[in-house]
Design a protein that fits this description.
Layout: H1 2-12, H2 20-38, H3 43-71, H4 77-106, H5 109-129, H6 135-150, H7 158-163, H8 168-185, H9 187-218, H10 222-227, H11 231-258, H12 270-273, H13 276-287, H14 295-322, H15 327-389
Helix pairs in contact: 1-3, 1-15, 2-3, 2-5, 3-4, 3-15, 4-11, 4-14, 8-9, 8-15, 9-14, 9-15, 11-14, 13-14, 13-15, 14-15
Length: 395
């Protein structure tokens, strides 16, 4: 997923390509690859095909927020990002709920066929209904049509004028290298990437922690263990209306009156919400034992994911407001980092919990999230000054 985003999302910033063509081509290949993946006969083939699925399925996750920023003003963009950010955790959490009942009966291939049944109709919907959202691509195609209609070769879009003095090397650097340069060298962008990656990794460690808690300590079946993941969409789902009501009544009226604020204004809900992550983790860590009712650790997970959602939502709104021109590419770098750490979390999660125990391992993750809470406050209070000193401030 993350590696694919590094290529496809920056390519969507190139005016001649736009966003829709990237979505359609890559998602079509994703749907087709689900068939041989479900039929794979050995682990080597399965790993290669799963890698390719992530590679070609990445644009929808990595570029979605940039597409919303193409279509909506800064006043309405937070409404879209609220639901888009929620999908990043709610959708993966639904997988174990279904697979927990189907896979023990039908086998692991059944889960891949389920993905195909869901993805194919979505592809048809994208093919028939998805418009181009990149203004550079829309204006470029309009300029081409006008040149053909009028014969006036001087009609050019702004992107053509801008890029006529750029070499292929410079355009490649602008699209593929500069976003990563910004992620590494801009402190504000780097912190948002690290914090979102940690939240995402914590979420994926639950896929390793739950089997060590609910079947082992509470005698849950495979299906019942999957149902424990309902705590995640419930926690996120209860938080969405709170965030939307806060924005609608506390933020939007001031924005409509005074115009675009400093980007750090978008971080305000996270000043309180980010503490829900360690609080929820500590509850889960030290209530996960047979002497405590199973609902208590599940409540801890719901609280944790509620906080993670608030953090990701405000940071996903913050990113396109600091460097709008590179929104898609910055989201791609963010997606690459969080997907890489999430994939690693599945690998290090089980050894972490087996060596330190659920209490110690989850508390370690809670400690990391507390450190990020300190960084979040630093970003809110000093982010403006950091941006003024940034070499990318003009961007």
């Amino acid at each position: 997923d993350g590696l694919g985003a590094l290529l496809w999302s920056p390519l969507s910033e190139i005016p001649v390509l736009g966003r829709t063509s990237i979505y359609i081509v890559t998602f079509f290949i994703f749907v087709i690859l689900l068939i041989p993946t479900a039929l794979a006969q050995n682990i080597g083939g399965l790993l290669v095909l799963r890698f390719l699925l992530g590679w070609f399925g990445s644009p929808c996750l990595a570029t979605g927020a940039a597409g919303f920023s193409d279509m909506f003003t800064f006043l309405k963009l937070p409404y879209c990002l609220a639901f888009w950010a929620a999908s990043g955790t709610m959708a993966p959490a639904m997988g174990p709920i279904v697979a927990g009942f189907s896979v023990p009966v039908k086998g692991w291939r059944w889960s891949l066929w389920e993905n195909l049944w869901l993805a194919a109709p979505v592809f048809v919907l994208l093919l028939l209904c998805l418009p181009e959202t990149s203004s550079d691509n829309i204006l470029l195609r309009r300029a081409v049509r006008l040149r053909k209609a009028t014969g006036n070769m001087n009609i050019r879009s702004q992107s053509e004028i801008t890029q006529q003095h750029m070499s292929a090397k410079e355009m490649t650097f602008e699209a593929l290298v500069k976003p990563w340069e910004m992620n590494i060298l801009d402190p504000a962008v780097l912190f948002t990437t690290l914090y979102v990656s940690l939240c995402y990794a914590i979420f994926y460690t639950f896929f390793e922690a739950f089997p060590l808690v609910f079947p082992a300590m509470y005698d849950f079946s495979s299906g019942e263990n999957g149902l424990a993941f309902l705590s995640i969409p419930i926690g996120v789902g209860l938080t969405i209306p709170v965030c939307l009501l806060h924005y609608s009544y506390m933020v939007e009226p001031g924005l409509a009156k005074n115009g675009a604020p400093e980007p750090e204004v978008w971080l305000k809900p996270g000043l309180i919400g980010n503490f829900l992550v360690p609080i929820g983790l500590f509850i889960f860590a030290w209530s996960a034992r047979s002497s405590v009712h199973w609902i208590v650790p599940i409540i801890g997970v719901a609280i944790c994911q509620s906080g993670s959602y608030i953090v990701m939502n405000v940071l996903f709104t913050y990113i396109p407001n600091i460097y709008p021109k590179y929104a898609a590419s910055l989201f791609a770098a963010n997606d690459a980092a969080r997907s890489t750490l999430a994939g690693a979390a599945v690998l290090f999660g089980r050894p972490l919990f087996l060596n330190l125990g659920i209490g110690g391992g989850v508390s370690f993750l809670a400690g990391l999230s507390l450190l990020c809470s300190v960084g979040f406050y630093a970003l809110y209070y000093f982010g403006g000054n950091m941006r003024k000193r940034s070499r990318f401030a003009v961007a």
